[in-house]
Write a structure and sequence with these properties.
With 97 residues, the chain is mainly β. It has one domain: Thrombin, subunit H (Beta Barrel). It is built from no helices and 8 strands. A 4-stranded antiparallel sheet has the order 1-2-3-4, with no helix packed on it. A 4-stranded antiparallel sheet has the order 5-6-7-8, with no helix packed on it. The radius of gyration is 13 Å and the shape is globular. InterPro entries: 6-blade_b-propeller_TolB-like.
Length: 97
Amino acid sequence: KGEGNGLHQLNWPTDVLIDKETDSLIICDARNKRVVRWSRCSGATQGEILIHNIDCYGLAMDEQRYLYVSGYLKHEVRRYKLGENIGTIVAGGNGQG
């Protein structure tokens, strides 16, 4: 329990959104460099990794269920289709400023 890198743990969560379609939480787990989904159903004991090895800070989801992830190191926003680990830069990506 507590801080760590197991699927039942988080390390510096920076943002969360509710996915009403799957009744789950999508969490930006910054220090573990991943975005995870946790079921809101009682009895859920661990998360599922949606995107790994990612610089993440903030999250948003649109009506088409694309996930937008902002990164604080590369100063960019990437769009991800759920189930894919490669995102498309939609804003920034040219450094700080």
